[in-house]
From TrEMBL:
InterPro entries: Aldolase_TIM, BKACE. Its cofactor is Zn(2+). This is Uncharacterized protein (DUF849 family). The lineage of its organism: Bacteria, Pseudomonadati, Pseudomonadota, Alphaproteobacteria, Hyphomicrobiales. It holds the Pfam family BKACE. It comes from Chelatococcus asaccharovorans.
């Protein structure tokens, strides 16, 4: 693992897992996504991981016109690195998933490194849904595979790589690290690799500290000093896991995509609040926080002047 004296904080602003009824603070309107993204950057996030939502319903979408509502606002309001999802909303086609990243050509795009069962149906227990799409969207994941085959990954790497976009390699299990090593061996992607190890999604690796240590050891064996490790964990595991990862030398990802709570029983009032909490903990541990330009240098991105928005 590449060592750095600065920690990169990524913030995942809205995602496609949580539905609008789960928290009044989850940004789903374009103007709210923009305001919260800029706020997270001001709080210390060097990377903003972005999804779009349909106006009015809050349903996940990859429509170019929805991204166009907030991307220029965020660009003009802060200097953070923009990371556009290719995981998108659950059940979308590959054409839909790649549309926004291909059109806007961001510095970074997310890249799920394999197919796996992805079950968020447990969230249906919350009840009292505002929109008729929410409950079926959650319940269908009992019989859902989040697809990213080798052919799909190769297509995405080739198309987005042609724009100079680099990747956040999202690894939900140990096998996904080996998948990345396969593409690295074929030189479809080049180091430094930004590996996002993900814990606590039902269908992926569980949120136990031993699993974090195992994922890190495997990545160290496969990539040596050619990668940066970042950690995210779902729900209540978010802050403990990112803190453990940072102590071990990793970077961190927080945000309302992955976790709605600031503390037990208390909803986070904003993405900035989660960034501020993480930054405070990391600073008290003696760790310095990377600026967007320092993150650009570490990850080798093409720079904010070379995007398509």
């Amino acid at each position: 693992m590449k060592r750095s004296d600065k920690v990169i904080i990524s913030c995942a602003i809205t995602g496609s897992i949580h539905t609008p009824s789960m928290s009044p603070y989850l940004p789903v309107a374009a103007e709210d996504i923009a305001v919260q993204a800029i706020g997270a950057a001001q709080a210390g996030a060097a990377i903003l991981h972005l999804h779009a939502r349909e106006q009015g319903t809050g349903r996940p979408t990859q429509a170019i016109d929805e991204y166009a509502r907030f991307l220029p606002v965020i660009r003009d309001g802060c200097d953070a690195i923009i990371n556009i999802t290719t995981g998108a909303g659950l059940g979308m086609s590959m054409d839909q998933r790649l549309a926004a990243a291909n059109h806007f050509r961001p510095e970074i795009a997310s890249m799920n490194m394999g197919s796996f069962n992805f079950n968020i149906s447990g969230a249906a227990r919350r009840g009292n849904f505002q929109h008729d799409w929410e409950l079926p969207y959650l319940e269908m994941t009992k019989d859902f595979i989040l697809s990213n085959t080798f052919a799909q990954i190769e297509r995405a790497m080739t198309e987005l790589g042609a724009h100079g976009t680099r990747f956040e390699f999202e690894c939900y299990d140990t096998g996904h690290l080996y998948n990345l090593a396969h593409f690295a061996d074929r030189e479809l992607v080049k180091p430094p690799f930004f590996v996002q190890a993900i814990f606590g999604i039902l269908g992926g690796i569980g949120a136990e500290p031993e699993n974090l240590m195992s994922m890190k050891a495997t990545a160290d064996r496969l990539f040596g000093a050619d990668y940066y490790l970042s950690i995210l964990a779902a729900g209540r595991h978010q802050i403990p896991f990112t803190t453990l990862g940072a102590i071990l030398g990793s970077h961190v990802r927080v945000g309302l995509e992955d976790n709605l709570f600031l503390t037990k029983g208390e909803l986070a009032p904003s993405n900035a609040a989660l960034v501020e909490k993480s930054r405070r903990i990391l600073t008290e541990l003696g760790l310095a926080i990377a600026t967007p330009d320092e993150a650009r240098q570490m990850l080798g991105t093409k720079g904010r002047a070379n995007v398509g928005f």
